[in-house]
Amino acid sequence: MHRLRWHAWPLLLCLALHALVWLVLEGRHVQGFTPRAKPETEVVTLTLWPAPPISQAAPSRPNTPSPSTASLATQAAPPPPSAEDWAFAAQYTLKNSKGYRHNWGQQVRSMMGTATEGPQQGLVRFRIEIAPSGQLSRVDTLWSTSDMAEKKARQAIASMPALPPTPTGKPLIFEKTIAFSPFAHDDPPVYRYDCDPDPVAFRNPFVWDGQSPQVRQEQAPTRPMTEQELEDCRKQLPRETIDAEVARDRRVMERWGWSGSQR
Predict the structure, then answer these.
(1) pTM over 0.70, yes/no
(2) Where are the alpha helices (DSSP H) in the chain?
(3) Which domain holds residue 161?
(4) Which of 94, 182, 230, 242 could form a disulfide with 225 if both were Cys (CB 3.0 to 4.6 A apart)?
(5) What is the pLDDT of residues 148-157, one digit of tens each?
(6) Are 175 and 261 found together in one domain?
C-alpha cells in the first residue's frame, strides 16, 4: 500500500506541471488579446462657400436703325403692256390664252404703284372670268397674304381700261397671282413649248365605289397632233426674246436652289 502511494506522486506531479504550464500560456494569450473596437461612423462635413456675385452688365443693344430711317428695298411698278403686246395676246389661243392672261396680270400690277419692303408687301390670288368682249365678269379672291396688296389690286382691277376681246371668242376663266413685293419678278412667259401636249392629269387607277366590280382604270394617252395641227400651232408661236430666256433660267435656278438672289 505504501509502495502504491509512492508511485502515484510522479503522476500527480506531472499533471500539476502540465496544469501550471497551461494556465501560464492561457493567461498570456488572454492578456495579449485586445478586442477590436467597433468602427465609428465617419462623418464628412463639407462647407460650401457661396460663389462671389457676378456683376451683370446690361446687354448692349445693337445699333439698329429704325425702319423709318433704314434703307428699305423698293420696286417700281412695271410698265403696262404695249399696244403691240395686246395685239399679240388678242390672237394667241394656246395654253388658255397664255399671252392674254400674262398681260392682264401685268396691267393690274402696273396700276398698283411702287412696292416697298415691309408688312404691306404680299401676294394675292384671284379667280378671274372675262367675257368674250373683254369685259370683266367676275373676280374672286382665293387667298391673300396682305390686305394692302389685295386692296391695291382690286382698285387697279376696278379702274382698268377696256381690254380687247378674248382670243377664242369664249369666256376666259383663269387664276392669277399678283405679287406686290420688291423682290417679285413678273417676267414674260416662254412660248416655245406651247405646242407640246399637256401631261395627262393623274387619276387614281385603283379608285372603287365599293359595289361595282374592281377594274383598274387605265389613263388614256394624249392624242398626238397631226402634222397640219402642229404646223398651224407653230404659226402662233412668237419669236423668243432674251428677256424671256433669262427669266426662265432664273426661275429654274430659284426653284432648285441654285440662285443666291433669293431672299
Answers:
(1) no
(2) 2-32, 83-89, 94-110, 147-158, 227-236, 242-255
(3) 74-184
(4) 230
(5) 999 999 999 9
(6) no
